[in-house]
Specification:
The structure is a single chain. By secondary structure, the protein is an alpha+beta fold. The protein has five helices and seven strands. A four-stranded mixed sheet has the order 4-6-7-5, with helices on one face. The longest helix is centred in the first third of the chain and has 28 residues. The chain is globular, with a radius of gyration of 20 Å.
């Protein structure tokens, strides 16, 4: 019931033209539990192992068609996870580039960035982790857009390199 209420409220607020940050703040002020969102993330990461388990169960109990469907679904999910998890974070002269396997990349122009910080206790945005460690998590705060959460291998080096590139970019804009 709470999930439906959260979804209904979020959709209604979006239709009213509220920004993502406003929607997030309104939902938080209404006291919706953060654990629902965290449980959803855990469920997503449990999908491939669950599908593999179901495939094995079907293999032992049912016909070949079901086996192929379940195994195919598990393989597709595993491939999707391989391609949607970032492999590298790059700080360039005017943007942060998040690279995935293959030709895919996600660019965050410095024009939209307000800074890099430790994530707040709850952030709803684009989550592009390379690991599940909270100690290496960073939030790229953006103006007028959803934040992007990442987990670089060396958090201090990433922040240091970002700060230098961001300051150099700002100086270049002022000239």
């Amino acid at each position: 019931e709470i999930e439906k209420d959260i979804l209904h409220t979020a959709v209604s607020l979006k239709q009213q033209g509220k920004s993502f940050a406003d929607i997030q703040n309104i939902l938080l002020s209404k006291g919706y539990p953060v654990d629902i969102i965290q449980k959803g993330l855990k469920l997503i990461f449990m999908l491939p192992p669950a599908l593999i388990f179901i495939s094995v169960f079907i293999i032992s109990k049912f016909d070949a068609a079901g086996i192929y469907v379940a195994a195919g679904a598990a393989v597709v999910m595993a491939i999707l996870y391989v391609f949607i998890l970032p492999i590298k974070y790059c700080i360039l002269n005017n943007k942060i580039r998040i690279e995935f396997r293959g030709p895919l990349a996600f660019n965050i122009p410095f024009e939209t960035v307000t800074g890099v910080r430790d994530p707040r206790w709850f952030t709803a945005g684009i989550n592009l982790p390379t690991n599940m460690s909270q100690s290496s998590a960073l939030e790229i705060a953006r103006k007028g857009r959803v934040s992007v959460n990442i987990t670089p291998a060396d958090k201090q080096a990433f922040v240091s390199n970002f700060d230098k590139a961001f300051q150099d970019w700002k100086k270049g804009k002022d000239i």
